[in-house]
Amino acid sequence: DGGITQSPKYLFRKEGQNVTLSCEQNLNHDAMYWYRQDPGQGLRLIYYSQIVNDFQKGDIAEGYSVSREKKESFPLTVTSAQKNPTAFYLCASRLDFLVTEAFFGQGTRLTVV
Amino acid sequence: GENVEQHPSTLSVQEGDSAVIKCTYSDSASNYFPWYKQELGKGPQLIIDIRSNVGEKKDQRIAVTLNKTAKHFSLHITETQPEDSAVYFCAASSTYNQGGKLIFGQGTELSVKP
Q: How far A90 CA lies from chain B's nearest CA (Å)?
């Protein structure tokens, strides 16, 4: 089955640690996105990538980093510089950045302990 | 910057009634308007979308209308069922803006009472 897979589903991080969230898609999509969701709020864009080996900052990129070495993979690292990392993180992909449907993964819930 | 306003934030209806959720957007270059349904602890799923060259689109009990002049679009759900209960998000994007990023509204929590 084609789709977009995020792992892990739940992640706990100690203060001062970096953690990496995985996002893999087998839809052959060029564009990939990372969003952050806080309770009662909409989704806010962290980073996006329109093509392999290229990515751009979104609206709330501070404290996060990404890479896009393969078309199917777009991992997100939450660094210790992110002061309030506890949130629900969603990865999405689209065939391209034109008027096409975005498919979302099932999300990773990150909690700082 | 660009933003999308969504109302109401919560909506409670009786089973069988209709539900309407409204969104307004600020970027006049927006040309794609999807609606997503999100169940608790899961990722959003597309339920319907509309492009800027169309004024209305319908898919069974769900319909979306777009008024480009007024920069607003609405989701209409008829004959609501308990399984329609979820959080609904509208979004807008422009091909020419930041990689076609989707800008989301704040969400509407819909509750359908049996």
A: 7
Cβ–Cβ contact B101 with A under 8 A: yes
Pair of tokens at residue A9: 């589903």
| CB contact at 8 A, A91 and A23 | yes
From residue B79, alpha-carbon distances to A22, A98, B76, B87 in Å are 39, 33, 10, 17
Rounded to whole angstroms, the Cα distance separating B72 from B66 reads: 6
Summarised one tens digit per residue, pLDDT across range B47-81 is: 999 998 889 999 999 999 999 999 999 999 999 99
- Please name the residues in contact with A21: beta carbons below 8 A apart, sequence gap of 6 or more: A6, A7, A8, A11, A75, A76, A77, A78, A89, A91, A108, A110
A89 CB within 8 Å of a chain B CB: no
Q: How far apart are CA B41 and CA A106, in angstroms?
A: 8
Cβ atoms of A21 and A75 within 8 Å: the answer is yes
Q: Buried b / exposed e across B19-45, counting CB within 10 Å, b at 16+?
A: bbbbbbbebeebbbbbbbbbeeeebbe
Task: State how far the Cα of A63 lies from the Cα of B32, in Å rounded to an integer.
Answer: 30
Question: B44 CB near a chain A CB, below 8 Å?
Answer: yes
Closest CA to B51 of B20, B94, B87, B21: B94
Looking at chain B, the whole-number percentage of residues with pLDDT higher than 70 is 97
The tens digit of pLDDT for each residue in B35-52 reads: 999 999 899 999 999 998
